[in-house]
Write a structure and sequence with these properties.
This protein has 141 residues and is of the alpha+beta class. The protein contains five helices and six strands; from the N terminus they run βββαβααβααβ. The strands form two sheets. It has a four-stranded antiparallel beta sheet with strand order 4-1-6-5. Strands 2-3 form a two-stranded antiparallel sheet. Helix 4 runs antiparallel to helix 5. The mean pLDDT is 95.
């Protein structure tokens, strides 16, 4: 068990060809999916703009403790990302991304974080970039 995060490719950015007519879209997550397994397998890679394993339950707990020490328990990182090692189905909406990005910048400038936290920062920055480019939220799966 652990925590993964994904940004789905915006439907407008997909070239699904003849499969377009079968594509469904979850309006909250921005996820394009198919009821049929064949087009799902065919387009699987292009349906996600970014995807990262943030860590297993123990790693997320350790990162949460480090984040609390670095920026406090009321931070977006703690409240929306690291509050649990298994919060699948949650999302960070586009309007929360500037606050998350500002917190990451603050931690980077402080420079007193572990290599594991540096990896988390990199993953989150890439997810933020993809979310902004695609117009879709960061979704935890």
């Amino acid at each position: 068990m652990g925590l993964d995060a994904v940004v789905y490719t915006n439907r407008k950015h997909l070239n699904l060809g003849q499969d377009e007519q079968f594509a469904q879209c979850d309006p909250e997550r921005g996820e394009v999916y198919f009821e049929n397994d064949e087009p799902s397998r065919k387009h699987r890679v292009e349906l996600t703009a970014a995807e990262y394993r943030l860590g297993n339950i123990a790693a997320i707990s350790a990162l949460r403790e480090e984040a609390i020490r670095l920026i406090g328990s009321d931070s977006v990182i703690v409240q929306k990302v690291l509050y649990s090692g298994t919060h699948s189905g949650d999302a960070i909406p586009l309007e929360s991304l500037p606050a998350l990005s500002a917190e990451l910048d603050s931690i980077i400038k402080a420079g007193k974080h572990s290599p594991e936290f540096a990896r988390l920062i990199n993953c989150l920055q890439n997810l933020i970039h993809a979310a902004n480019a695609e117009g879709n939220p960061i979704v935890f799966v």
